[in-house]
Amino acid sequence: MDFIQSIDWMGILKCFVVGGIICVIGQILIDKTKLTPARILVIYVTTGAILGGLGIYKYLIDFAGAGATVPLLGFGANLAKGAMQEVQKAGLLGAFTGGVKASAGGIAAAVFFGYLASLIAKPKIKKQ
Amino acid sequence: MKHIGKQTIQFDNPPTILETASIVGPKEGQGPLAKYFDQCLEDEFWGEKTWEKAESKIIKETVNSVISKSGISADSIDYCFAGDLLNQCISSSFGLREINIPFFGIFGACSTFVESLCLGSVFIDAKAAKNVLCATSSHFCSAEKQFRFPLELGNQRPPSSQWTVTGSGAAIVSASGTGPYITSITPGKIIDMGIKDANNMGAAMAPAALDTLITHLQDTGRKPSYYDMIVTGDLGYIGKDIVTELAETKGYNIKNNYNDCGVLIFDKEKQDTHSGGSGCACIGTTFSGYFFKQLKQGKLKRILLIATGALTNATSSQQGESIPGIAHAIAIEN
Amino acid sequence: MKPIETKQEYSNYVDQKSPNSPIWKNCLNAFWVGGLICTIGQFIMNFCKYQGLDETASSTVVSIVLIAISAILTGLNIFNKIGKFAGAGSLIPITGFANSIVSPAIEYKSEGYVMGVGGKMFTVAGPVLVFGISSSVIIGILAILFGAGA
User: Which residues in A lie closer than 8 A to residue B44 (C-beta atoms)?
Assistant: First the structure.
């Protein structure tokens, strides 16, 4: 119960709105351009990395929390942040290791659960 | 037979379409034409492990069915013309590998069914064969996998996209019989009007359908009203609309006797198929199931069947190439 | 209407003939589903912090949990229905990245577990990693050159 009381509901609202708006921008790209899903994901991750590299994205994370980190922009920003932090510690080597280190959890989880799902699931037709 | 006009061949002894057969998937089995098909499957795999195997089984069983329905033995079929959409036409060649009939694998994308009827009837009228088998198949799942995205990917289909028909249509064309007869054929040219959107195949193929239609009418000196029905293969709602309008600009009114198999096979609203059906089996099953019966019962006397194909693949569309279209026409009369 | 002769005329004509996506409805669905997925992430984040994890670790847990949920929903043939309804709402969050890895893995199972699942797993999501990681390397190098950094 303490956990429920500890929740910052204003923060949740900001998270919902910012996360929603980031997705709406993606929806406009889908409907108004002929971009494929893969291209849209690439645009998001690259934009996120640039915004992260310029130090802008962290303000959005401070404001919206998971509303900024869960969309793929956050994945890109996290890659950039990791590289920049590691550079401080390890120099040029850090540029190569930092990004993947920071997002290793997500990448490994996607590969692992992807393989696991393929063992269990069978392809099915879309009903619609 | 003789060559008339620019592209048309007229037969001296018009070959008969002896019999047809059709097997469709579950979604087509819920569509408006369900009662006309020989068999509607319960599930897309049909007991097989892969989509590709399932498609091969569908064409194999359709061919077996048309042979047994026709009452002639497999031995008396001289040649077989078949093709599909999967790379190197594996559904047809794997499905028909045990059938022991000399085999021509053909590719005309979704125009394959009429292409096979064209070639078959030329063989017959040239007395190179007495009976030929023409077959085609497509499968929604194998086509999505090869041309688009994995089925489990959570993407949205744009409103202009079409739904590949799961199924197979097969016909036996014969030198002797009581009709309906294939009286003339108009093989089409490749027409590319520069459409690049792989989600708008109807628009990419419509100019080819229009070109073949007008060439056929000019070559034979006929008016559109000569036919009870002009039927295109898989242009869908958008393509059908385009053909109707553009035909009018060229001075041909086909509003009253023109339809498209992609429009007929699904219920757009209930089945959420956007611009309609597509795929080799779209015209293959709709002709074999519906139109052949209408002709046989005399409800339709003359139809012009125009199958349309988009001659593209996944690589060419990734390389930004436009989509060339093709359309072949056959006139079928009682 | 005048006859159409050139490719340009035809292209314009087709654009005008083709129906547009229902963009307002799509955007609304993308907004609330996307917002909801982020909110679920925020709850997981709050819970991790409540359990005493730091910011970075909490964020990683959020990613892993959302990816696991997406993998399960993809395997159960539910994610594609959510995706059809929500469009970018489920594509843009990390769930879309997970779905784009899991869906080819399942689809290409028929070509074997090594070259099918293993080889085709990144057919859709591969570019995300290529561009994301490459960008991070470039940004790291730029950070050295300009003496910036976090």
Answer: 125
Structural domain harbouring A81: 2-120
Is the peptide bond between B180 and the residue preceding it cis, with omega within 30 degrees of 0?
Answer: yes
Chain A residues whose CB is inside 8 A of the C98 CB are 109-110, 113-114
> Are A66 and C72 in contact (CB < 8 Å)?
no
Give the CA angle between residues C11, C13, C18 to the nearest 5°. Answer: 95
Mean local confidence (pLDDT), B72-76: 95
Give A116-128 pLDDT, tens digit per residue: 999 999 887 755 4
Is the pLDDT at C150 greater than 50? The verdict is no
ipTM (interface pTM): 0.93
In total, chain C counts a number of residues equal to 150
Q: Which of A31, A36, A40, A126 to mutate to test the interface with B (most CBs of B within 10 A)?
A: A126
Average pLDDT value for residue range B180-186: 97
State whether residue B117 is helix, strand or coil. helix
Please list every residue in chain A whose beta carbon sits closer than 8 Å to the beta carbon of residue B200: none
Q: How confident is the model at residue C53 (pLDDT cuts 50, 70, 90)?
A: very high
CB pairs below 8 Å between A and B: how many? Answer: 22
What are the structural domains, with CATH classification, of chain B? Answer: 2-174 (3.40.47.40), 181-333 (3.40.47.40)
A8 Cα distance to chain centroid: 22
Q: Are C42 and A80 an interchain contact pair (Cβ–Cβ within 8 Å)?
A: no
What would you measure as the largest C-alpha separation in chain C, in angstroms? 72
Return all residues near B45 (Cβ < 8 A) that are at least 6 apart.
B51, B54
Token output for A24: 């709406």
